[in-house]
């Protein structure tokens, strides 16, 4: 019996406020064996290939089951029935469409809510792209996986070589939903285990002091950042999104980071800060002395044995000093801040938002929060090319979620030497994602250029 963690549960309630918490990626593949001799897209072959790989990721045939009050947290159970046709689908060919058309299709698909009664994922194929290529939009609800766990899932569904063997399809029989008596026993056992841990800790005062100190340091880290400044970027958002893509090479990011003695993630934050500076200046807003706050998720999967799965993230809030015009000087400031913040990163455990009153209040509170202005995520992807049905994946573009009053964010994904950044903006509050992307590209060029002595 596998209960959802507190982090898992926290990813579910924003959907009810209209802020879909799907994460995903857009892959561009060669046509390969997807197209028959008559030019028809072979959706049936694709479905059989994906279905044969599903035993590698059991979560993709499970649903979230919410028991009645008193039976504990929601838990994962096998779907009563599963049809791969509900999850692996294709749109009509886009007739030599480019990236702009592909992203339009992705947004149309993203806005369709996932059915809570079925496993919360979909894989959409978009045939007919320019040069005979095919787009793939893989969307997974955040409750299933965070970024690193999603990468592990990607490796299970795709192959590491063009001639990867297709697993033999196995008959799947869903396990029954636990009975109410089983849930009662499991809930009581878990609660008693929590009480036992508290009692055991009471016999070790040093442990209590250590935990209290850790909680205090984590809280102090959050409070010490201070309130985020007011900005036109922070207004309650809707459901529609705009996308812009910035491309570079992972080697370029590493070369910049090595030159300045910082991390690749610091370079990403500096580049994004340059994009936000360009955006606010285009709006006529002052940026002198402006220091925005960015929430940055930090993976803690490395602290757990086995492959990454589920949600295991910490977070840090980093200052983005937009008032510093010089990208190099701004990079040094960001790197110094992240070096301090990382020491205080701990898992986001917290209480589960379970009460109806709290769930009712949460959207309003999040829409008015003043802790952060924006969101930046960096997920390391596969270092080697992936394949599906013998077709090579040419590139992967990440898609991240927004919520509350965070109207613009960025997600970065490294894949086979590429480093791709997607700027995501709310259509009503921040549609000018192209302006942000342009500012990011200019910042990258400045950081790449040889530095003249001061």
Summarize this entry quickly.
The protein has helices at about 5-10, 15, 45-55, 100-110, 145-155, 180-200, 205-225, 250-260, 265-280, 325-340, 355-365, 435-450; strands at about 1-5, 20-30, 60-65, 75-80, 90, 120-125, 135-140, 240-250, 290-300, 315-320, 375-380, 385-390, 390-400, 410-415, 420-425.
Describe the structure in your own words.
- The chain has 454 residues and is an alpha+beta fold.
- Helix content is 35%, strand content 21%.
- About 2% of the residues have low confidence.
Features:
454 residues, alpha+beta, single chain, 12 helices, 6-stranded mixed β-sheet
For the largest sheet, list the strands in their spatial order.
Answer: 5-6-7-2-13-12
* End-to-end distance: 62 Å
Uncertain segments are 349-355
Element order: H for helix, E for strand: EHHEHEEEHEEHHHEHHEEHHEEEEEH
SSE layout:
Layout: E1 2-3, H1 6-10, H2 13-16, E2 22-29, H3 43-53, E3 62-65, E4 75-78, E5 88-90, H4 99-110, E6 121-126, E7 134-141, H5 147-157, H6 180-202, H7 205-224, E8 241-249, H8 250-260, H9 264-282, E9 291-299, E10 313-321, H10 327-342, H11 356-367, E11 374-380, E12 387-388, E13 391-399, E14 408-415, E15 418-426, H12 433-448
Parallel strand pairs: 5-6, 9-11, 11-14
Antiparallel strand pairs: 1-4, 2-7, 2-13, 3-4, 6-7, 8-15, 9-10, 12-13, 14-15
Helix pairs in contact: 8-9, 9-10, 9-12
